[in-house]
Amino acid sequence: MRDVLLGLAENPALTAGLFARLVASGDEDVLYVLAGRERLTTSQVGTLLAVGDTSLTRYLVRSGLVPWADVPEGHPGRALDAVLGGVAPPAVWWEAAGDPDPGVRQEVAYEPDAPADVVAALARDVDPGVVADAAGNPCLPPELFPELARHPSTVVREAVAANANAPAALLSALLADGGHPAPTRCGACHRRDEACPDHTPGVRRVRLAAAAHPAVPPGGLAAFLDAPEVGTVTAFAARTDLPTCFVDRLAEHPAADVRAVIASNPVVPEPLLRALAADPDPEVRRAVAENPAVPLDLLVTVATHERLPREPAPRVESATRDELRALATSPVAQVRALVADRAELPGDLVELFVADRDSGVARRIAARPGLTPEQLDALLERHGPAVFGAVAGRPGCPAALLHRMAADPATGRRVRREIARHPATRPETLLLCLAAEDVEVRRHAAAHPALPAPVLRSLVEGPDETLARAAAQNPALPRNLMERITGQAAAGVPPSGVTRSGR
């Protein structure tokens, strides 16, 4: 019956009395599901705290559900949990920051809501790991940046270089050579008494962190244009303040990921963008279509030969009415689909796309808000299962169309899942979903509030544990059945009628 109890613990219609009964069941998993419910009342939190389980209390406190005054005095890690839960007064921050365990101090130093004076104190901690976390904290006082950029450990300097508030001049210094004086510790030895013979890898990490920072002056990036560290290069390749000579170099980078970022950068000159549209890697060619400044003729060329992602194209979003109409009549179906994806579209173009013979265009227009039931019906008539997914995923899809799609044997499991959880789905459609082969379709149907009470009761009392839990989550579950199950659980009695065979 645990599956039923877990489902009840998730049920949004659970009353305070039933909540207390589930707590009294003492089942650990049930308790954690209850603790994870949205909008727990003060009384419910108190009921869970009264269980006295350390891990459960920690979860509640760290979730911000327990005011500081209500955190049990003897709770281990009381100060840290309150700090991480955002319920600690200033004095408690200092208590946690003074913990003898460096792991605790690290967690405090890393916390972005920490008071600046607490972060400043931890920035001078005896443990370099604590100092590193403080150095990366956005609340680090500005006056400490120069001091920490000279820290003996490259780990601390790397954290400074990654701090969102690091000043440009300091980033330039770290980018050049890792900073002065030369570090005497690196990631491999910063907590050891004995230093490594060579800290070059650590210095490299400091420089890479500075190179990826959006505030570092671009001039210093010249030494990294051909760097093999692709993640760093892609980070600065998206910048719109790069010199043209840098853009040219990055367009020839051996990594396609870097070239793709450049291809989508609006500062790329048109001749270079046209060259990138012929790149040997398809991801680079597709990225050209995502460039907000791509010429429309080049966008059409790319769309003619490449399968583009479903995201709206920025250049189409900025197109004028005349440009839109020209694109909407393109012989290339994918170009028309890009227009159909546009956030705002004139009504006559919507009608044009509803009548389009290409299923790809139809799927895009079918997903748009504001279509009438008649337009959706026309799309289903013309394109059938090809547009089922787009239609079923619409919040306003009419119940009759949902039933029509559920009854079609060609409907796939993903579409059936959408239908089974759609708020407009009717009981008779849900019964079709319960007969589907896919377990996820049946699970969504069992949890749907439109499912009739007798069906819910049969599912809760039936042999399928997945459906029993889903039905127990259903807010339409009869109250008397909920009371019987929770009452027996609180008494430690396996409920008759919900016991699984073989258990």
From TrEMBL:
UniProt xrefs under PROSITE patterns: CYTC
InterPro entries: ARM-like, ARM-type_fold, Cyt_c-like_dom
Domain Cytochrome c: residue ranges: 162-266
Coiled-coil residue windows: none
Domain of life: Bacteria
Listed Gene3D superfamilies: Leucine-rich Repeat Variant
Record key words, sorted: Heme, Iron, Metal-binding
Protein name, per record: XPC-binding domain-containing protein
Originating organism: Streptomyces tanashiensis
Organism lineage string: Bacteria, Bacillati, Actinomycetota, Actinomycetes, Kitasatosporales
